[in-house]
Design a protein that fits this description.
Blueprint: H1 3-9, E1 13-14, H2 18-36, H3 42-52, E2 55-56, E3 61-62, E4 67-68, E5 74-76, E6 81-82, E7 87-89, E8 94-96, E9 101-102, E10 107-109, E11 111-113, H4 117-121, E12 124-127, E13 130-132, E14 137-138, E15 143-145, E16 149-150, E17 155-156, E18 161-162, E19 170-173, E20 178-182, H5 190-201
Parallel strand pairs: 2-5, 3-6, 4-7, 5-8, 6-9, 7-10, 8-13, 9-14, 10-15, 13-16, 14-17, 15-18, 17-19
Antiparallel strand pairs: 1-12, 11-12, 19-20
Helix pairs in contact: 2-3
């Protein structure tokens, strides 16, 4: 089993492996090219995202300066917006659900180095997947560690550090991030009425 195969299967792998190094170099070339592109170059950006990620949906917009480790473990569904400065260390599968909004300087860190110092300095690493549900809003500077799933329709407050699963339809904040309440119909504003009027006029 290659180190890439170990990484993809969730086993401990050698972070200093030459093939993994080359895969990181490839990813850096692609995301640097993306970050240097102009907002008007949508066709080029879509091409780069297709090459960089495992899967990317329609109407995905990523602001610079985006960075990732490999790219090929990242799946982004339709209608996702990622704000400035996002970092995804995708040594395990990272999935971002459709219609999700990601604030500036968000970090998703699927990687974990070994706790034993000897193992760590010799490149021992392992990863756990991250899954962000559909219609989620991650506030600025949110950090998510490996093994976490965030449910659909949830809001994660600015600066939160998400170390455990967060259910659907809640507001969660803090370090460590905790649920503070459910999102209910009382959270709707007059904008909901505006949307309904638009639909009725179609």
């Amino acid at each position: 089993m290659t180190e890439w195969e170990k990484l993809r299967s969730g086993n401990i792998y050698n972070d200093f492996d030459e093939d993994l190094f080359n895969r990181r170099v490839r990813a850096k070339k692609l995301f640097r090219q993306y970050n240097k592109s102009d907002d008007s170059e949508t066709e080029l950006r879509n091409k780069i995202m297709t090459e960089l990620f495992e899967s990317v949906g329609k109407s995905v917009w990523i602001e610079p300066d985006f960075r990732c480790e490999f790219g090929k473990n990242i799946t982004i569904e339709n209608n996702v917006y990622i704000n400035f400065g996002c970092i995804i260390l995708d040594c395990a599968k990272v999935t971002i659900g459709s219609q999700t909004l990601i604030g500036p300087n968000v970090g998703m860190y699927a990687v974990n180095h070994c706790l034993d110092a000897t193992e760590r300095v010799n490149g021992g690493c392992f990863g756990k997947p991250i899954k962000v549900g559909k219609r989620v809003w991650l506030g600025g500077d949110v950090k998510i560690v490996g093994g976490v799933t965030i449910g659909d329709d949830t809001v994660i407050g600015t600066g939160s550090v998400v170390t455990k699963d967060i259910p659907s339809g809640v507001v969660a904040v803090g370090n460590p991030c905790k649920v503070i309440r459910k999102i209910t119909d009382e959270d709707k504003t007059e904008y909901s009425q505006y949307i309904e009027r638009l639909k009725n006029n179609d």
